[in-house]
Specification:
single chain, 501 residues, alpha/beta, Cobalt-precorrin-4 Transmethylase, domain 1, Methyltransferase, Cobalt-precorrin-4 Transmethylase, Domain 2, Rossmann fold
């Protein structure tokens, strides 16, 4: 039984530039064979049982030789599996996708090619440089600057390249930048021709330098400018002064670590990236079923018998309704309990299931909910509190003091996240970060249990007072605390802090 292989372009780095077709291939594949991606977060899209194989290639460092990659994708496909061969940028633009497709065709393996946004176009766009422009040019030439450094003679026709009208774009040429620019000048290009280099284009590490053919090599050397980078030669570079949009965002140049669960990290990560941050997703916890699954099921089954349901987290809401709809097919089976919730995120999750919260405290903490219940008549009323396994008992104690009858429904538990497929822990340890974000006490506890040294000058950002108390107890009081205890509040607090730096 033959499988199928998808040759997929991951785009230049920003996860938002990944195509819908590429995302579908990543999410559904049995085997993911991936390069050294600019956006390792794409690995989080795979299904749990997906076999992930790193085949990355950097200069002079190939995890698997190209012949080995060709044989691997053929072998896995012939096992009847769906294989996603994931490559940065576009697989057919200096990505050797054509060679891999030919190998698959020769072996009789069905395959599809999924184009991606190439860094040769996406990188300059994020640097504020249009590769074509009516006022400058109507021709674009793309070439690779990579050649075997042991070759005595170049195979490039620099005379042709230097005289070609319009914009010239090249990749994989930083190591030979001085030679390439010198050859352009030698073969007739004007020394004062504008050139820009963009490194790690479209990602949080995006950096751009500009100069001329005569000066750029010295500028790059002084800036210690390394690959991967895309270079643009031509007068279109001057447009950057007017339309440089990406590098002007408020968190550009700041690295922020997100410690939420892998499933929940996306919302926070997206908001931070939209402000220009370089986001590292380093989940420290994951959500699992409670130990007493039977007890949870019985509590959900009997939820319609209570006067109140209390939810204190989006995870609790999601787990509760997953259990509820596994038992009942009609939402009306919930009966008539009133619903109380802490925080806008929890309320939003309740709304997703077409229910509404009747009681939401002004202060988004357990103490605030107990205070809000004092204005309700709950003497002898029954309350089902849907919670995590390890949670402060403030709500149960507070409502019992108001003569309510409180039962506890343990919907989930948090456990340490043991997987690190993107290498986030090593990146943090080696390269540091500007901010570490914590959205719960458990994310803080499990992060410091990893025993990763705190980077110098790194600031800890807390979502609210409960999380801040945990951090303080751990000996690491936060530098920043959100004024509103939700994701937008946390993002805004970091933004305001960065503004004052």
């Amino acid at each position: 039984m033959k499988g199928i292989c998808y040759l997929v372009g991951a785009g230049p780095g920003d996860p938002g530039l990944t195509t819908l077709k590429a995302k579908e291939c990543i999410e559904t594949c049995d085997v993911l064979v991936y390069d050294a991606l600019s956006s390792p977060e794409l690995l989080n899209w795979t299904k749990p049982d997906c076999e992930k194989i790193y085949a990355g290639k950097r200069a002079k460092d190939h995890a698997i030789p190209q012949d080995g990659i060709n044989a691997l994708i053929v072998e896995k496909s012939l096992e009847g599996k769906s294989v996603c061969r994931l490559k940065g940028g576009d697989p057919m633009i200096f990505g050797r996708g054509g060679e891999e497709a030919a190998e698959l065709a020769e072996a009789g393996v069905p395959f599809e090619i999924v184009p991606g946004i190439s860094s040769t176009i996406g990188g300059p766009a994020y640097a504020g440089i249009p590769v074509t422009h009516r006022d400058h040019c109507s021709q674009l030439t793309i070439f690779t600057g990579h050649e075997d450094p042991t070759k005595e003679e170049t195979s490039f026709d620099y005379q042709q390249l230097a005289k070609a009208p319009g914009t010239k774009v090249f990749v994989m040429g930083v190591a030979r930048l001085r030679e390439i620019t010198a050859q352009f000048i030698e073969h007739g290009a004007e020394p004062n021709t504008d050139i820009a280099l963009t490194r790690w284009a479209t990602t949080g590490q995006h950096r751009t330098i500009t100069g001329t053919l005569a000066t750029i090599a010295d500028i790059a050397e002084k800036a210690n400018f390394k690959s991967p980078a895309v270079a643009v030669i031509g007068s279109v570079v001057t447009e950057r002064e007017k339309i440089n949009w990406f590098e002007n965002r408020p968190l550009f140049g700041k690295r922020v670590v997100v410690t939420r669960t892998r499933e929940q990290a996306g919302k926070l990560s997206k908001q931070l990236r939209n402000l220009g941050a370089d986001v590292i997703e380093l989940p420290t916890i994951r959500i699992e079923d409670p130990v007493d699954t039977l007890g949870f099921a019985e509590s959900v089954r009997d939820a319609h018998t209570y006067d109140w349901l209390v939810f204190t987290s989006p995870n609790g809401v999601e787990r509760f309704f997953e259990g509820f709809y596994a038992i009942y097919k009609d939402a009306r089976s919930l009966g008539g309990p009133r619903i109380a919730a802490i925080g806008p995120a929890t309320v939003a999750k309740i709304n997703e299931y077409r229910f509404t919260a009747d009681l939401v405290p002004e202060k988004h903490v357990a103490e605030g909910l107990v205070e809000a219940f004092k204005d309700q008549y709950i003497d002898s009323q029954t309350v089902l509190w849907v919670k995590a396994e390890e949670t402060r008992m403030v709500i149960a104690d507070g409502l019992n003091a108001l003569n309510a009858i409180v039962d506890i429904c343990v919907a989930y538990r948090t456990v340490p996240e043991t997987e690190d497929p993107t290498g986030a822990r090593e990146i943090l340890a080696k390269e540091g970060a500007d901010y570490l974000t914590f959205t719960s006490g458990s994310t803080a506890e499990h992060f410091f249990a990893l025993d990763i040294p705190l980077p110098e000058h790194c600031q800890l950002a807390s979502i609210g007072p409960v999380t801040s108390k945990t951090l303080t107890t751990l000996g690491h009081p936060p530098h920043i605390e959100a004024k509103t205890h939700d994701i937008p509040g946390l993002v805004n607090a970091i933004r305001e802090n960065a503004k004052s730096d």
